[in-house]
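Hey everyone, long-time lurker, first post.

I ran two proteins through the pipeline my lab uses and got sequence/structure pairs for each. Pasting them in order. The first:
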Amino acid sequence: MQHHAIKLRIYPTPSQEQQLAQVFGCSRWWYNFALNKSIEAYKETGKSLGQIALNALLPQLKKQEETAWLADCYSQVLQATTLNLVTAYKNFFAGRARFPRFKSKKGKQSVQYPQNVKILANTVKIPGGIGEVKAKIHRPIEGDVKTVTISKTPTGKYFASILVETEGDNPTISTAGTVLGIDLGVKDFAVTYNGLKTSKYSNPRHLAKHQKNLKRKQQKLARKKDGSKSRLRAKKLASKVHERVTNARQDFLHKLSHKLTNENQVVVVENLHVKGMVRNHNLAKAISDCGWGMFTNFLAYKLERKGGKLVEINRFFPSSKLCSNCFYQVNEMPLHVRQWTCPSCKTHHDRDENAAANIRAEGIRMLQTDGTAVSAGGEEVRPKKGRKSVLRHSSANPEAPPCS
């Protein structure tokens, strides 16, 4: 079975907006209450409450006078909220995410409907008394609707994210085709090498283009009194700038990932440690603005849909220090050095172009080590007197010196 998510813009009426606000509030309150109960239970017993134990609290809360308003909320929304909390706990203990945090009414609001949502001609029918909501259906929705997530952005826009299940499986993964190496950076967002030519894609710097406007809006917001209507209006204006930056970034990343996955069968990237890189306060804002993690996710699912493969090499692989011609490795390569000449073969290198070629070669070597047949374009990926990493799956020489 295949699963696809389609995001639609919906336009609720004022009365429907009020109903959705009540659903958002109920879901948010129940999430915070259940999270607090789980924390207290863990402190007392050393174990957190499970999904069944948390859902068992709901009938009691609906009968109490202080929380009787929970009965007005669609019951499956609250149960889906419980499932999301339990999943957040599992991700935390598995090391995939940080500890669940309490939700605020000041940020983005969302609720999940696990069933009984119907997609009609130009509307989305939401259960729980909300009814049909006008929607902009920009593409046909085929398959069984599994879950629908209704969300409200800080700018006041409403969206419905529809998860659809269709028959069939994804194509079988094949590596028979062009292999592309990508070096991600700040000055040039991506430098690619496919064995024949090098291409550079400049960084649009979305946040920098709106920085002056955003600063002005945030200064006005800071001068407003907390809780006033003028502060709400100023906050909405600042949120619109952030939304414009986010939309521009996602549009660029979608278009570039679509182009690269259509032209290549295998894409090789570095497994970058972005959280560690943003500790450099001189580059933190520029690195965060790039969206490297989002770009890698886009590449992964688009390659999977077409039967391609994404290869991530070790972040300590010396892609910048290694000569792509003779494989000589220099000891140091400061960040300000953008071009260098190999001391061994005297080949002059552009830092990013050389890194892209080495990333591609390392990705091919990893696939061949796993026994995967890969077309290297007729070139020799590693010479017979190459580095010891030829016989191993992981990269050999790390860029960072070993800890003493």
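...and the second, right after it:
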Amino acid sequence: MAKTGLVLEGGAMRGLFTVGLLDFFMEQEIGFDGIAGVSAGAAFGCNLKSRQKGRALRYNMRFCRDWRYCSWRSLWRTGDLFGAEFCYHELPEKLDLFDKKAFEENPCLFYLVCTDVHTAEPCYHLCTKADEECFEWMRASASMPLVSRTVKVGNGEYLDGALSDSIPLRFMQKQRFERNVVILTQPAGYVKKPSRAMPLMRVLLRKYPALVKALEKRHILYNETLEYIASEEKKGNIFVFRPEGQLPVDRICHDPELIRKTYDLGYGAGKKRWDELKAFLTRGNFKSHSKNDKDAIRKEL
């Protein structure tokens, strides 16, 4: 039986589009054998494994104007634009509890991607326990250069996984997830350009020469990955969700209404393409659909 994977791109607050889709998946009781998330894709995607529909939208709307969550004040005071202690410890431990038990009992494998700052190579970490170290791995995956401190966790030192593998489809295929759903946070036709912050990064990240070289070529790798995704999509090997146009939020957003609007676009995309997704998820394993498509997919996955 084919293993089904879910690949989640990052994009900071653009990840609210992904959140809408994930909540739709939970509403339809769709399960996956494995998830690979990068940056916001990991930080928000963990709620699918813990089966906490509505949680990511709820805390983003509640805390988007709280300086401890995301602000230049946080960057000045803590060294992180997205406050490390607040976002990855106080919030899931006290303010909007993360269901650790559900996360650990769900057999779905949960990988997140970080970038080793010394080698610039991607690290694919499998999170099995929802403990303090797991949340530090999530922080590392989402720690954008220039506005975040490097994160020392496990045996390494890391930054944003998007610097080395923004959309880990190839990784999931190598793990033998033959059937993958990919959620992108940029619309069709998007082409990444060289970073205008590169001169500053060369100075501030000069102690990590391999990382600087990777950053100089990041747009090339990203655009090549999009070409590969388009090829796999055309072959019918993967199912891709992407925004139909530019999202109303960018990496940072302090407006609850725009956050909700972005979430609704993701949820609407899932609802609009539900029949297509059902056909993809059940393809090759059912001679005919049952009368209750939801039960058929749940049985399959």
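Reply from user beta_strand_b:
Welcome! Quick read of the second one: DSSP finds 14 helices and eight strands in the chain. Residues 286-294, 296-301 have pLDDT under 50 and may be disordered.
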